[in-house]
């Protein structure tokens, strides 16, 4: 159990570092496009600040269920994420990634390609406009 916790902490740290670098990159991009007005800066999610609501939910619920191989729980989280889409009419692939991921998890497969696809297409856009949005409710 202790080993599992340690391994999970390592996983989160590693993921956090990778995404944090990507975050710096998107900060640079946001700076470049600031001609049209500075983007609002979230107070969470940077080094020394608490994680942002979705970021934390992803780590503590989604990544944890994936790591623990609790695929039914992972499927529920991903269904919630599909319903929680901040721009359901515009971000149609968000809903599809989340639903496809949930279907894969229900079929007993890790939905890693859905995780990757959504992060690639939406993480930066999400961080620009919705970083302070309250995370989805916890699955029962
Ligand atoms: C439908 C879109 C979507 C899907 C599917 C998705 N994510 Fe995410 N995830 C996001 C967004 C958006 C963020 C950025 C949140 C932020 O930085 O505030 C994120 C952030 C994360 C983070 C936090 C990284 C950090 O900054 O520390 C982890 C961990 C994560 N996701 C894991 C997963 C895993 C594992 C899966 C698949 C089982 C998954 N996600 C599926 C949208 C998604």
What this model shows, in words?
The chain has helices spanning 2-32, 53-67, 71-83, 92-106, 112-130. It has one domain (2-31, 44-130). The relative contact order is 0.14. Mean pLDDT is 80; it is low at 13-38. The protein is mainly α and 140 residues long. The radius of gyration is 15 Å and the shape is globular. Helix content is 66%, strand content 0%. It contains five helices and no strands. The chain binds heme C. Heme C (HEC) binds at residues 15-16, 19, 45, 52, 54-55, 58-59, 62-63, 66, 74, 78, 81, 94, 97-98, 101, 111, 114-115, 118-119, 122-123, 126-127, 131.
Number of domains: 1
Tally of separate helices = 5
The coarse silhouette is globular
Radius of gyration: 15 Å
- The secondary-structure class comes to mainly alpha
Distance between the termini: 23 Å
For this structure, the quaternary state is single chain
Question: Which segments are poorly predicted (pLDDT under 50) over 5 or more consecutive residues?
Answer: 13-38
Concise summary:
By secondary structure, the protein is mainly α. The protein has helices spanning 2-32, 53-67, 71-83, 92-106, 112-130.
